[in-house]
Amino acid sequence: MSSVAPFPGPQKDPSAANRAAPPPQAAKPPVRDPRLDFYRGIAMFIILAAHIPGNRWTGWIPARFGFSDATEIFVFCSGMASAIAFGGSFARQGWGLGTARVLFRCWQVFWAHIGLFVFIAVSVAAIDLYGGFEKSYVNSLNLGHFFKDPMTQLVGLFTLTYVPNYFDILPMYLVVLMLMPLMMGLEKIGLWAVAMASVLIWLTANPYMIGLGPDGLSLPAEPWSEREWFFNPFGWQLLFFTGFAFMKGWLPKPPVSKLLIVLAAAFLILSAPYGSWKVFTWVKSASPELADLILPGRDAIGEWREKTDFGLLRYAHFLALAYLGWVAAGEGGKRLIASGSSAAARIWSVLLQVITKVGQQSLAVFVFSMALARFIGFALDQTDRAVMTTAFANLFGFFLIIGCAYGAAWFKSQPWRAKK
């Protein structure tokens, strides 16, 4: 609709208006929400620990206490970050240039995936070839088929019809990004069209929800078996676009309510034995009778907590966890920001800065951590994996991904360019 008044008043001298107008000011860059990068940074540390083979610390990651885990944090926050990075491009420059920017990001993610695979494949091949160890590190990643038939598997690798175990999250992220132009085009019809499209795509991966059986739409992971991608992008896009919608303003921020806080906390606690085998064993040790009552329920909700297709209970569990994290951080993340000059406040301020930096450079850190995890696992294989040895390995890994984050930020700043 036009903003021109239907009954214009007396015309004013435009030159006088120009003289009275204040001088234009340069647009200030948007302030980045600290909650986004803080929680995404936390996810990066968890993902590193989770991918170190035989790591004692994986017994205490979020995946051991409920339906969802660090993958949900990464995907949800990536959706939020994409709303900041790409949503503005669609709004300012139109659908065509917005799509071009998304495709450029897909190009970067694709080559990050290829580079990560080649680097790790060469590394484990070198260890097997020259190390003389009894354990085959090539087979530990199920790469035997790749080295036996490299021509076929290289074609599959580049067409994403061969997605080996351990190398599956970036292809999922890539396909989800490619759905963004579709969603931004549907926004012109209405937000209802975006929501309907995302839900319908999710239902194609989870047809049990509407009584169509267990087999949904998926992508093949390897030509010699029926294994599908471990992270089905048609299921996981629902979480990505939920984060996208919150950051874009398509979904309103939830109210801070004591009732919602209690309900979210109760769901997380009461669902833990159903979503976590670790918690179930604790319940069984404390009360075998209660465990006998829980076990049939665990078996009945197998599809609902399924990770590959992103089952509904994983979605509900993460939203409850995210709500509590959002409330705990406070409006604009104000509770994350330390105040005062005490030693504890200064320490927390440094930790917040470090974790946030890791979250800001999540793609570089993720790729680096996936390679690093294999080397840390190899190093631990040469030890007795004692508690202190494992702790040192994890903490050293954290130190290295922090260094990666600061290094990536330094290179992105292009310090060699002349300052004006």
Automatic annotation (TrEMBL):
Species the sequence originates in: Leisingera methylohalidivorans DSM 14336
Keyword Membrane: yes
TM segment ranges: 38-53, 73-91, 111-133, 153-177, 189-209, 229-247, 259-277, 361-380, 392-411
Domain of life of the organism encoding this protein: Bacteria
Name under which the protein is recorded: Membrane protein
Annotated region (Disordered), positions in chain: 1-32
Record keywords, A-Z: Membrane, Transmembrane, Transmembrane helix
One Pfam family named in its UniProt record: OpgC_C
Lineage: Bacteria, Pseudomonadati, Pseudomonadota, Alphaproteobacteria, Rhodobacterales
InterPro entries the UniProt entry points to: UCP028704_OpgC
